Amino acid sequence: MRYEGNIFRPFSEANSYLLQCTIGCSHNGCTFCGMYKDKKFRIRPLSEIKEDILMAAAQMGNVEKVFLCDGDAIAIETSMLLEILAELKNAFPALRHVGTYAGPISILKKTMPELTALRNAGLTKAYLGVESGDDRLLREVNKGVGSDEMLRAGLNLRDAGINLSSMVLLGLAGRGERSVEHALATANITNLMKPEYLAALTITPVPGTILHTRMKRGEFELPDAFETLEEMKILFENITIDGLKFVGIHASNYLPVNGTLQKDREKMLSLINGVLEKRDPSLIRPEYMRGL
After folding, report:
1. Distance between CA atoms of 232 and 259, rounded to whole angstroms?
2. According to the model, what pLDDT value does residue 275 have?
3. Whole-model pTM above 0.85?
4. Closest listed residue to residue 256, CA positions, set 244, 266, 268, 264
5. Which residues are paired to 257 by β-bridges?
6. Sign of CA dihedral 97, 259, 168, 134
7. Are 138 and 179 in contact (CB under 8 A)?
8. Are strands 42-43 and 22-23 parallel, antiparallel or unpaired?
9. Residue 152, burial from CB neighbour count under 10 angstroms (0-12, 13-18, 19+)
10. What secondary structure, in 3-state letters, does 103-150 show?
């Protein structure tokens, strides 16, 4: 298999064949993200992608899961994506899952018939970086859309039948009142969007990003571990939809929390409250064990 640059994928795609369809991210402007700063976005030629699929079939056999890299494969023209999905289905008869990161701008550029066609062709799951439901914060971090557009992007994926994993960032608003506003707005957009999964990560300023520069200048104050747990607690207290699978075991988080809302709500709150009451650093993940 051939790859260009660093390759990123959600941790739930650990057992997937990673197929690099684009280089970099089509937006690549978020102030907190350093994942694709070394790449200029482009779509790989279809012929190369098909060659990679054949190589993977020869080396890996009949895989069941595929993840389309890099940061926003859904930005590819629908006709080309349909060809890629058809090639995957031909190469891997046992294929049951194809996932991709999906940027809100790219989603909104596709019509509902296009999204539905992609789902029918085998695109089963999309990971949407919602980050926050706070409209002002989304614009401050340069997501490219506001909260209304972000909500519409998520709902369009769900309406097309694509399994939606919403990703949010604890601590993105910094310390103070904005932290509470961020958490409440994120709970609200989650209730409206109704994703199948909600994955919470904790902000980790990356050198070379605008957010990291702002932090060094004193313009952004990074919340401590317990303040980010307060945000997680607000999420659990204000998310009202049922059957939502919460995934909080990412390496960036100070406290691994998993469960299904509302079924496990009290157990999850009890875990967080126990840590917040003691404020004992030994109860949380140490800095040296955190990662992106």
Report:
1. 13
2. 96
3. yes
4. 268
5. 248
6. positive
7. no
8. antiparallel
9. middle
10. CHHHHHHCCHHHHHHHHHHCCCEEEEEEECCCHHHHHHCCCCCCHHHH
Distance CA 101, CA 113 (A): 20
CA dist list (Å): 221 to 173, 218, 232, 245: 9, 7, 18, 30
Residue spans of the domains in the chain: they are: 11-289
| CA atoms within 13 Å, Cβ hemisphere of 198 | 33
- Amino acid identity of residue 40, one-letter, is K
Architecture of domain 11-289 in this structure: Alpha-Beta Barrel (3.20)
Per-residue model confidence (pLDDT) at position 2: 86
pLDDT of residue 38: 82
Spell out the SS3 assignment of 186-225: HHHHHHHHCCCEEEEEECCCCCCCHHHHHHHCCCCCCCCH
Which residues on adjacent β-strands are paired with residue 105? none
pLDDT the model gives residue 139: 96
Cα dihedral sign for 204, 207, 212, 215?
positive
Mean pLDDT per 10-residue run, the chain (292 residues)? 86 93 93 88 96 95 94 95 98 97 97 98 98 97 97 98 98 95 98 97 94 95 96 97 95 94 97 95 86 73
Residues facing residue 99 across a β-bridge: 67, 125
